[in-house]
Design a protein that fits this description.
Layout: E1 2-10, E2 14-32, E3 47-65, E4 71-83, E5 103-123
Antiparallel strand pairs: 1-2, 2-5, 3-4, 3-5
Length: about 130
């Protein structure tokens, strides 16, 4: 599976990324290493909440919070959006044992398209 992620915004409180998806992946792969962003402690305590998502995908894809057993944050398919200005609540990283704050993508079928994630830094960052 090929994922190419570009950071569009990395401010004191917000991160926006764009990920291009090309191919098939039967297992979850890390696409966002939260510890690499500005002011991250990078000790496993860094957390972000997903506050917005826009996507256009040719087949289903799950966005997961990494943990011993990953927790699905969003299941995406086709075209759509969540959050931004529609008043939807943020999606908090509620992964349990082994959580490290990173975000993984997983899809089991050939998939092409893009995912834009808007995240709020919520824990583990010195800028908070």
């Amino acid at each position: 599976m090929a994922y190419t992620t570009q950071t569009l915004v990395d401010s004191d409180f917000e991160i926006v990324t764009k990920t291009i998806v090309t191919g098939t992946n039967g297992t979850a792969l890390k696409v966002i290493d939260v510890g690499e962003f500005d002011s991250a402690a990078d000790d496993g305590s860094d957390r972000v909440d997903i506050v917005g998502c826009k996507w256009s995908l040719s087949s289903p894809l799950d966005i997961e919070f990494n943990a011993t057993t990953n927790v699905v944050a969003l299941s995406l398919d086709g075209n759509g959006s969540y959050g931004f200005a529609d008043g939807a609540p943020s999606i908090t990283n509620n992964a349990g044992t082994g959580v490290d704050g990173d975000i993984y993508f997983e899809n089991d079928a050939a998939c092409t398209g893009y995912v834009i994630l808007r995240m709020r830094k919520s824990a583990g960052f010195t800028s908070l």
